[in-house]
Amino acid sequence: MIPNPGPESSLQRWEFYFESEQPTESEQAYLDWTINTLIPEDTALYENVQHGLRSQGYSQGRFVINRNRPEWSEHHVHQFQKLVTTQFGEIHDTCKTPEDLFRPLSTFGRSAPVRTKTWPLWSSEDTNE
User: Fold this and answer.
1) 3-state class of 7 per DSSP?
2) Cα distance between residue 129 and residue 60, in whole Å
3) How far from 4 is each of 9, 13, 77, 81, 95, CA to CA, in Å?
4) 44 and 101 in contact (C-beta within 8 Å)?
C-alpha cells in the first residue's frame, strides 16, 4: 500500500512488467522513452493543471468541457471513469476478503464484461463532476 502524501500532493508509482527478466531491445526502448520523455512531460502537465485548478480564473470542475470545440473536451474521460467505477463496484460487491480484489474476473463466475455503447459528444451532466 502506498501512503497518501496529503491533499496538496500526490505520489506516482510506475511499474513495468515484461515476459522475461530482461526486456527485449524494443521493450527497453519503450521503457527508456517512458522514463525519459513521457513521465517528465506528464508530471509537468499534472503540476500545471493543479496550479490552474487553484487559480481564481478556473471554476469549471475537474474536466474540460467546451461546447464549441468538442475535440478539446474530456467528456470521454469522464465516461470512461464512470465505467471503471461501476465495474469495480460490481466486483467489490462480490468480494468477501481483501485478497478477492486481486482475483481474475473469471473466478467470479463470469468472464470480463464486454459492453458496447454510443455516448453523446457532449453532455451537460459532465460539467460539474
Assistant:
1) coil
2) 9
3) 8, 12, 23, 21, 24
4) no
- For residue 73, what are the CA distances in angstroms to 47, 56, 64, 124? 20, 21, 5, 12
Q: Which residue from 115, 117, 127 is spatially nearest to 74, judged by alpha carbons?
A: 127
**pLDDT-based confidence at residue 75 (cuts at 50, 70, 90):** confident
Grid cell for residue 88: 469495480
Rounded mean pLDDT, 32-37: 91
Residue 52 parent element (H or E): helix 39-53
Query: In percent, how much of the chain has pLDDT > 70?
Result: 57
CA-CA distance, 53 to 9, in Å (whole number)? 13
Alpha carbon distance 118, 84 (integer Å): 16
Q: 30 and 39 in contact (C-beta within 8 Å)?
A: no
Nine-digit cell string for 65 = 468541457
Q: How far apart are CA 73 and CA 121, in angstroms?
A: 9
Residue in 80, 81, 75 with CA at minimum distance from that of residue 120: 75
